[in-house]
Amino acid sequence: KNEVEQSPQNLTAQEGEFITINCSYSVGISALHWLQQHPGGGIVSLFMLSSGKKKHGRLIATINIQEKHSSLHITASHPRDSAVYICAVGGGSRLTFGEGTQLTVNP
Amino acid sequence: ETGVTQTPRHLVMGMTNKKSLKCEQHLGHNAMYWYKQSAKKPLELMFVYNFKEQTENNSVPSRFSPECPNSSHLFLHLHTLQPEDSALYLCASSPPGALTRDFGDGTRLSIL
Q: Which of A95, A96, A102 to mutate to test the interface with B (most CBs of B within 10 A)?
């Protein structure tokens, strides 16, 4: 069993739908990242959070430290949101990554 | 455009070839990383360099040989690779000890 589990593995939505991607982890962490990887391969950081909730535009990330669980929400989804979303947890200077969730948003 | 540049973006090589992947960053970071991303698998850390010194080798086969001549440049020398080495190889950088990472766009490697 991976230390970082994401669900679902694949997600297809219609434009405008509200999307939730979940991440559960089994190790102690100091921070959790949500990353976005586009088909070309490059990875960009969306959020780093250690408690509570963060919002950036249509993206919202939450974390529950006690339950070792985080969610990434996308409101009013758009085809340009289609990408792989990766959860990564950090302790010390090491990051452990989930397998990613492939999101496809259809027009 | 990212602060971390990787070349080439795509590489096809035979099992007996020798090639090198290059990574360059101008973010002022002193830690650099190589990651391997295989299909449907999480990113795997391969090597870590801090201030040009290798501080972590995650049990990587010797057919992968990293080199870090200065804090801005990182290479991955490839020799006698196997088909299972086909993957996306990602370079990243960070301030030393930080949990943040700035990633390059990766090199898509295919071994024939």
A: A95
- CB within 8 Å: B99 and A45: no
Per-residue tokens: B18:
């020798």
pLDDT, residue A12, reads: 98
Query: Which regions of B14-101 does DSSP assign to beta strands (E)?
Result: 18-25, 31-37, 44-50, 53-57, 64-70, 73-79, 87-94
Which portions of chain A are predicted below pLDDT 70?
A: 1
Residue B62: burial class (beta carbons within 10 Å; 0-12, 13-18, 19+): exposed
Residues paired with B109 in a beta bridge = B11, B87
> Per-residue pLDDT tens for B20-66?
999 999 999 999 999 999 988 999 999 999 999 999 998 999 999 99
Which pair of tokens denotes residue A92? Answer: 């010390």
